[in-house]
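Supplementary notes for students who missed Thursday's class. We covered one full example, reproduced here. Read the sequence, then the structure, then the short commentary at the end.
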Amino acid sequence: MAKSSRSVELLEFEIAFYQRLLNEKPNFVEALMALGEAYTRRGWHEKGLEIDRRLTQLKAQDPVIWYNLACSLSLLKRLDESLEALQRAMALGYDDFEFLAKDPDLDVLRRSPQFRRFLETRSSSAPS
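Structure (token representation):
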């Protein structure tokens, strides 16, 4: 069996596992997070977005949840919504700017005019 087909097979097993687990415990946050991440790795970005939106309902004050939502929206090229979610994450305390600067899920957002304007606004409002 080729390595990539084996990887896909394992990923599909992982997805099925979390789906079954969530059938039993629909609000199991850690399983939802793992399933959303697995959907994204599989390239199922719409499904990942559904999970991330559900998680924002369950853990509305968690900055990582909002950061993940920003990533899902960026992957789907929904840039205004992505930036709004990222701003919410930051307002809630997300501060891993080193990771944000290199996270491939945010590539599309980082290249956007919306993101550049956001950075300009942040830098002009930062204390000297």
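Commentary. The chain has eight helices and no strands. Residues 1-59 form a domain with the Serine Threonine Protein Phosphatase 5, Tetratricopeptide repeat fold (CATH 1.25.40). If anything here is unclear, bring it to office hours.
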